[in-house]
Design a protein that fits this description.
The chain is an alpha+beta fold and 174 residues long. It is built from three helices and nine strands; from the N terminus they run ααβββββαββββ.
Length: 174
C-alpha cells in the first residue's frame, strides 16, 4: 500500500479577530477626529437663526389665534408673552415660545424703529443699543409691525436678526 502525504500550503489572509481589531482602531480614530472638529456653524449663527424662526412662529400664532404676542428681550435671553384676560402672561408650557437663554458667550444689542424711539432721536436723545433691562416689542397680528434689529455677537462672529415692518423675520451675517 502506498501512502500519500498531502502537504498543505500555509494559508495567507486576515483572520476575523484581526479584522475586528482594525475596525475598532478605525472607529476610535474617527471618534477622536469628530470630537475635536469645530461645529459646522458657529453657535451665534444657530442662535440668530433660532431667534428669527421663533419670532416667525410667534407671529403665526398671533395671526391664527387672534391674540397679541410680544417679544421680551433682556441681556440673558428672550421669551414671548401673550395678552389674555387683560394682562400679559409668559408661555412656559409652549414648546417654541418658552424662555430661551442665549448661548454662553453670546451678547445682544437691540435697536427698534418704533414711534417712541423715533421721537427720542428727533429730540436729541440717544437710543439704548445694549439691552440693560427688559425690552418689549409687541408683535402685531395685523401686519403693521414695529421694526426690530438684534445684533447677536460672540467670538465666532456677529449675526443680525431683523424684523421688518411687514412682519418678516430673518437672520443674516453682520
Amino acid at each position: 500500500m502506498e501512502r500519500h502525504t498531502v502537504i498543505r500550503a500555509r494559508q495567507t489572509g486576515v483572520t476575523l479577530v484581526e479584522l475586528l481589531v482594525v475596525l475598532v482602531i478605525l472607529a476610535l480614530a474617527s471618534t477622536a477626529v469628530l470630537l475635536n472638529t469645530p461645529p459646522a456653524r458657529p453657535g451665534v449663527q444657530e442662535e440668530a437663526e433660532r431667534m428669527a424662526a421663533r419670532i416667525r412662529i410667534a407671529l403665526d400664532e398671533s395671526m391664527t389665534t387672534r391674540k397679541s404676542f410680544r417679544l421680551v428681550l433682556d441681556e440673558g435671553g428672550y421669551d414671548f408673552e401673550v395678552f389674555t384676560q387683560g394682562q400679559w402672561t409668559q408661555m412656559p408650557d409652549h414648546r417654541f415660545l418658552a424662555r430661551r437663554d442665549f448661548s454662553k458667550g453670546v451678547t445682544a444689542e437691540i435697536s427698534t424703529a418704533e414711534a417712541a424711539m423715533a421721537n427720542a432721536r428727533s429730540l436729541g436723545e440717544s437710543a439704548r443699543p445694549v439691552i440693560d433691562e427688559k425690552t418689549r416689542l409687541t408683535l402685531d397680528p395685523l401686519g403693521a409691525q414695529d421694526q426690530l434689529q438684534v445684533r447677536l455677537s460672540s467670538r465666532d462672529g456677529a449675526f443680525l436678526v431683523k424684523l421688518d415692518a411687514t412682519g418678516v423675520a430673518e437672520a443674516s451675517r453682520d
